[in-house]
Design brief:
Elements lengths: L1 E3 L5 E3 L2 H5 L3 H9 L55
Antiparallel strand pairs: 1-2
């Protein structure tokens, strides 16, 4: 994520870094003159990216039970998969 320092410069931080950021850390970054001055308000936004979004068809359900993997049918009881320890 982009974080703007009080001096107007912008730096990139991960969420974990942002959550652990203290006032002393901010003062240290300002003293090092870290970051860049961004003039474009859309810098790093999805507006600039030229990628297509993947389409997933969730409405399709297979009619044949053989196409569905991993779902036990009535002739495969759960007792064989779970050890009850009795």
């Amino acid at each position: 994520m982009l974080y703007q320092l009080p001096n107007g410069k912008t730096i990139y931080l991960t969420v974990e870094e942002y959550l652990s950021l203290t006032d002393a850390d901010v003062q240290y970054l300002i003293s090092l003159n870290c970051g860049d001055t961004l003039l474009d308000p859309f810098f790093g936004s999805a507006v600039e990216k030229n990628t297509k979004e993947k389409y997933y068809d969730f409405d399709y359900l297979p009619s044949d039970d053989d196409e569905v993997k991993g779902i036990p049918s009535d002739d495969e009881p759960f007792d064989e998969m779970i050890d009850l320890g009795l």
